[in-house]
Amino acid sequence: MPQIFHHSTNALAKTTIFGAIFILVAALWVAAEISRSSWNTGQWVEIQQPVQFSHKHHTGDDGIDCRYCHTSVETAASAGIPSTSVCMNCHKQIWADSPYLQPVRASFSTGKPLEWTRVHDLPDYVYFNHSIHVNKGVGCSTCHGRVDQMPVVYQASSLQMEWCLGCHRAPEKFVRPQDKIFDMEWRQENKTTAEIKDGKSLVNTNHIQPAKVLTSCSTCHR
Amino acid sequence: MQDQPKAKPFRSSSFFKDGLSSRQPVEGTIARGWLREDKELYTGKKTTTSPSAAAPLTSAIAPTGPTATTPNANASPSQVAAAYPDDVEKFPFPITEEILNRGQERFQIYCSVCHGMTGQGDGMIVRRGFRKPPSYHEQRLREAPVGHFFDVVSNGWGAMPSYASQVPVRDRWAIIGYIRALQLSQAGAQPATQTSGDRK
Fold first, then answer.
1. Chains A and B: how many Cβ contacts under 8 Å?
2. Which positions in chain A touch B131 (Cβ < 8 Å)?
3. Which CATH code of 3.40.50.11810, 3.90.1720.10, 3.40.930.10, 1.10.760.10 fits the domain covering B88-190?
4. Whole-number Å distance between alpha carbons of A47 and A28
């Protein structure tokens, strides 16, 4: 009986075995890259709003503190979106006729809230509380980036679970002194070794739970 | 699972006619612990009004911003106090260093935008065109009782809106404590309007 396959087809067989493994790994790698990409996470994507509100102008140029508008950030789960009357504190006199502010004036006169588009949308199966983070030493810019330089706000972090865990596993790398929480210029990357040591002591003074508790499922999925 | 049909803060609702998922309590509802019986703490007004309170406000103080304040620059303390007969003169709780620090922080968040870091009325929003508030260091405000400041923060005054929704009651008193500290810190200096030229 003559051979059906020529001797050279052995090479093909070997290639397909190697290829199957290679293609599988490549496919997994591509899938992982896609799931981390901003196409999936929404990171870096500027979100247009019903009013052309610029955080850069209000906090960067005018120096208004985050908490002037986001009043509940230190006391509640939600940082708080200001009511239209807070806008009107200043804008009843400043830029009072500007067409940009027409939706704000309409909202103020009708009592119908402005419908802002959410930028940071965590999945509904995640519990997140602003106040605990702010009070334990996590600053605004650690998660939100340089909002004071954003004319249009975008999501500066991936908000994926591995990103959350990066800090929950090693909070000493990210926590900062209590008087720097709202300081937009404070940068974790600029921390010196001494400051990381300082971070370790902050973890103690702020009574931050050990990583075992912080990475427990029910800490965030409750 | 990512988006569950439940009410979360600031989420809209298709169920209620007004589109809000956060419902307003029935009118007249008082949440537990919010009865606010302590009038002096929550309004800055005296519990027992003095007989002079019934008398109509003299022309000494009209409730309209800076223009009305000018004639009072040289008013005597008794005149100024008489202008605020209902307002408490003492803080409803002791002002400790901790509270003063809290007051400083809150002042710099909510007040300094217009009143400026030292209370001269030269904040960034004023520089952008908002009506200039009176300086805390003019005689009328140095002598005004603390209850007056509480009333202004809570209910607004002239161009200033109410800050009741942004600043909780105890923080308002802490801020007033800090305003008093600012006034003391500047007390040796001449009134701001006269020194602005020869500061250097």
1. 56
2. 93
3. 1.10.760.10
4. 30
Among B1, B20, B125, whose Cβ lies nearest the Cβ of A90? B125
Question: To 10 degrees, what angle do helices B97-106 and B169-186 make?
Answer: 90
**Contact residues, chain B, for A118 at CB < 8 Å:** 10
CA distance A195 to A167: 16
* Amino acid identity, position A126: V
Helix (H/G/I), strand (E/B), else coil: B45: strand
Q: Domain ranges in chain A?
A: 9-36, 55-81+118-220, 82-115
Q: Do B125 and A67 touch (CB under 8 A)?
A: no
**ipTM score assigned to the predicted complex:** 0.83
A17-45: string of b/e by CB count within 10 Å (b at 16+)? eeeeeeeeeeeeeeeeeeeeeeeebebee
| CB neighbours of residue B85 within 10 Å | 17
Query: What is the spatial distance between Cα B139 and Cα B178, in angstroms, rounded to a whole number?
Result: 17
Contacts of B157 in chain A (CB under 8 A): none
Of B1, B124, B166, the CB nearest to A125: B1
Partner residue facing A65 (CB), from B109, B129, B131: B109
pLDDT by 10s per residue, chain B, length 200: 888 888 888 888 888 888 888 888 999 999 998 888 888 889 888 887 554 444 444 444 444 444 444 444 445 555 666 778 888 888 999 999 999 999 999 999 999 999 999 999 999 999 998 999 999 999 899 989 999 999 999 999 999 999 999 999 999 999 999 999 999 998 765 555 544 444 43
CB contact under 8 A, B3 and A81: no
